[in-house]
Amino acid sequence: MMINILIALAAGCASALMFVSIVSGALISLLLFYLAPLPLMVAALGWGVLAAAIGGIMAALGLAALVSVPYAIAFVVTIAVPACWLGHLALLARPADVPQGEPADLEWYPVGRLIVWMAGFAATSTMAALFTLGTDGATITDGLRSGLQRALGPRSVPGSDAALIDALVAIAPPAAATVAMLTVTLNLWLAARITSASNRLGRPWPDLRTIELPPMILAVLSLALALSFVGGLTSLLGKTASAALFVAYGLTGAATLHTLTQASRNRLFLLSSAYALMLIFLWPAVGLIALGLADAFLNLRQRYFQRRSMPPPPSH
User: Fold this and answer.
1) Residue range 160-186: average pLDDT?
2) Does an H or E element contain 153, and which?
């Protein structure tokens, strides 16, 4: 018990220091800020959600006492709560339905539903950040525009950069949601890898080729896209939700790509080339999103296994 408490305190301190390092303005602090949920997620997956919760509470109290209450609230909303909840869900299991007489097995919380929760946290944290600029669409847009004009500094000539600033203001909310979604996904994957390597992960490693989003998410994405054209605060909400869900379908697209190429002799080259292009140019990621959406509509992975008379890989 004492070891769990010490680990919880260490995780909370590390997470709080990484979170507050952003005030230094150093370039490395940006990386530390994005990895701030990692210590708490490692504690949640390796030592239980209670350890992560204790670490998050102590970290928030320390931030409130040493920095400010708003920083502590931001830490709780964007770091501690997602880390604890995602860790809880990742370790959630129930007895699987098996024929009588066969050994009992556990059915673990689906990874696809975890991704939906991550998209929800990404959209929520992005909207919470936007609400610090105002409570309506016009005020938030003006705040983003003012911030971008200050960032451009003296190089900005009034009127000459108006089109550029307007374009950046339009893409800022969905871009922020995309970064938030990628960040929380990377942190949870790293935490699972770390705890798995140390034999502390409390569940079997899932076959990520089997990731599927609930069918209802297609309807949610359609609604979010429709809301993004309404205007005002509703449009901002629709854009952030759409961006997070597109990343979610990009992850299922990656799972589909790994499935469809598994019989190819050039599989390693194809996968490495695809990911390299996405890292360099970014826009090829649209292909993964399209592949994920196509799989949702057409069941590409299921058809692949049926055509080859192969059983699908077991999901955990």
Assistant:
1) 88
2) none
Q: What tokens does 104 get?
A: 């009992």
Q: What is the pLDDT of residues 89-135, one digit of tens each?
A: 999 988 876 555 555 578 899 999 999 999 999 999 999 988 888 88
Q: What is the DSSP letter of 80?
A: I
Token couple for 114: 């975890």
- Distances in Å between the Cα of 94 and the Cα atoms of 90, 269, 316 are 12, 39, 11
Angle ∠(173,282,160) on CA atoms, nearest 5 = 55
Do 308 and 263 touch, CB atoms closer than 8 A?
Answer: yes
Q: Which of 274, 273, 276 is nearest to 290 (CA)?
A: 274
Cβ neighbours, 10 Å, residue 185: 20
Q: SS3 for 160?
A: coil
Contact (Cβ atoms closer than 8 angstroms) between residue 120 and residue 237: no
